[in-house]
Amino acid sequence: AVTASAVSAFVYNFFFLEPRLSIVIGHPADVFTFVVFFAVAMTTGWLTGRIRDQGLATSRRASAITALLAASRSLSAATGREAAAHALAEQLAAATGKGALVFLPGGDDVIPAAGAPAMPVLGPADVAAARWAWQHGEPAGAETGTMPSASWTYRPLQGIRARSGVAAINPAALQTEEGERFVSALLDQGAVALERAEF
Q1: Which pLDDT band holds residue 50 (cuts at 50, 70, 90)?
Q2: Cα gap 157→190, rounded to integer Å
C-alpha cells in the first residue's frame, strides 16, 4: 500500500501537476493531495490486512474443531487404556504436527505407553519431569518453571475423578494462546477417555 501510494503520488506530480515533467510541487495545496494518497493507501492496506487475519483465524478454528471431532471419535472407539493412550498420542501428533507421548500409571510411577510418530529415548530430565507432573498434578518440563531442561512439556491428564496419566507435548505446539487452548481441549478429552477405559 505504501509503495503503491508513493508511485501514484510521484506519477501524479510528475505528469499532471504544474510544472509538468518535474518533481517540484508548484502549489502548496498539492501537498494535501499527497497526504490524501498516503492516508487512503494506509487505511485500505490496514483494512485488507484485518480481513485476511480474520479469514485465517476462522480457518484455524474450523481446523481445530474438525481435529477435536476426529479425536473424540477415535478416543471413544478405544476399548482399553493402551488403546486410548495410542489414540491420544496419535491425535495430539496429528493435530499439532509435532510428536507426542502418553504415560500411564504403573505402581507409584508412570511409564511410557504410547508415542507418535514413534517412542523416543527419554533422558533422565524427561523421566523426572514426567514423574513430577504425575505426582503433583502440575505441568513440568520445557517452557515451565519446573525442570525446564527437559525436552518435552509434560501435562497431567486430569480425569473427572483422578489423574489418569501424563502427556508429553512438543513445546513448539504451545507457543500461541490458540495452540495452548487446543492442546488443553485434547488433553481433557484424552484424560476422560483413559479414565473411562480404566473403569
Answers
A1: very high
A2: 7
